[in-house]
Amino acid sequence: MLGELASLRRRALRKGVWFKVLSKIERSICDLTIRAISTVKSDRLLKALAAIMDKLKSVLESPVSTLTRTVGRQLASALARVAYSWGHQGARSWASDDGFARYLAVCYMNTPVYYRDQFEAGGLVT
Questions:
Q1: Which residues contact 116 (CB under 8 A, 6 or more apart)?
Q2: pTM score of the predicted model
Q3: Binning pLDDT at 50, 70 and 90, where does residue 61 land?
Q4: Hey, how many other C-beta atoms are within 10 angstroms of the C-beta on 126?
């Protein structure tokens, strides 16, 4: 866990979000933990570090990855259901295909806002 925290700290510093996202207290907790502790024994400290790490992970995640996880997965499962209902037996695997979900997310990103609203009104994306 401490190795992952140090790695997140390096990535956040490189991307310039370390000082923007975390408060001085959160940065101090991370720095002191990395320097002084080899294993975390306190449940309170563990919860605080987990919250800080989650915050950093969400900021460091790329927009394409975020859309793939949300919109791309929903569109892939909807298309897989439709194709399977039309008799395509291999369509079941589309819902779990990462590449297909990423493709759909990128297509969604490049779709004009007017048509995105039509997707959402039709219930394909929530």
A1: 108, 125
A2: 0.58
A3: confident
A4: 8
